[in-house]
Design a protein that fits this description.
- A hairpin with a 4-residue loop joins β13 (249-258) and β14 (263-269).
- α1 (20-31) crosses α10 (287-295).
- Helices cover 27% and strands 28% of the residues.
- It is built from eleven helices and 17 strands.
- Strands 9, 10, 11, 12, 13, 14, 15, 16 and 17 form a nine-stranded antiparallel sheet that branches. Strands 3-2-1-4 form a four-stranded parallel sheet, sandwiched between helices.
Length: 364
Amino acid sequence: MSPAKTLPPGSTIGILGGGQLGRMTALAAARLGYRCIVYAPEDHSIAGDVAAGHVSGAYDDTAALARFAAQVDVITYEFENVPEAAVTACGKLKPVRPGVMPIHVAQHRLREKEFFKKLGIGTADYLSITSDADIAAATALPGILKTCTEGYDGKGQVRVADRAALAAAWRQLGKRDCILEALVDFRCEISAIVARGLDGATRCFPIGLNDHRDGMLRSTTVPSDLLAETIATAERFGMELAGGLELVGLVALEMFVTKDGRVLANEMAPRPHNSGHWTIDACATSQFEQLVRAICGLPLGPVDVLMPSRMVNLIGEEAGDWPRYLADPTARLHLYGKATARPGRKMGHVTFLQRSSSPRRSTT
Ligand code: AMP
């Protein structure tokens, strides 16, 4: 096989998906002299707002996908629930990076857990739930019942204390294929974001310490005060995952640290991740630039922490506090340009540098 070619600045990157991750990727790409064209079902997208072009089309519209692919040199995706068939169709026309396999694995919780297991990455105990008989035999209790597909930010999951609650929860989730995960009594949640280049080189960003509320990421702090041993295990899991998926691009691995110091993988996403937003303002290379570097065959950038930081999501109406963040010299404000602030909607984020400041108003 001939060595894969570097795509030099001036080349065009196609992005499947029009959300904030696509938007921040397009901004990072523009800084390095690349153009981006966004593909999304809606006529207008917040990623398209900052890109060179926007193609509107359904994910099963093969003619529109082909029109999009014809305009770009490489294709990436900004969310893992892009239908696999759309990614496969694009892959026949242009290189798709990270690739089809990473989303095949990430789109299905059971496949994902089994993939972790195969690589020796620890997880909570889990069971496949696809029938009433599985409910009757369930042992991972108390636990969390999660749909195998289409769950994110805590959606499609129900905490269950006992078998009766489990049966009710399964009915509530429409008796869809699920996994039942044992409830992890964790000390904290962390994530590793790993880049893997076209040449197979891997680099892990410093591990972030994550705070979740209502199943959604609230804040990420870097550097963490984790034990060196915990950090080493988390980095190793992230690197093994990136290698196992043979991806070119980024993968984020969310993990629990248990009270007895074990590291257990929760889920992964083969794309930039909310817990990596701090890298824009406080790391030598941002996760978005790292993605561009990886998929264009450029050398990966350094991942040194430039300044201690805490990234806080601005959810719903919280984004209305923007004047306060602009007035705070330690805050770096990022707004995503979304027209309406619905509850639970990620509208932006703010990164506080040097940990000397945090939002004055509690938002919990
Ligand atoms: P997920 O959608 O799987 O990322 O879950 C969202 C959040 O729910 C996680 O970040 C945790 O805070 C919590 N959670 C998920 N799975 C478990 C588990 N097995 N044990 C305890 N908490 C969990």
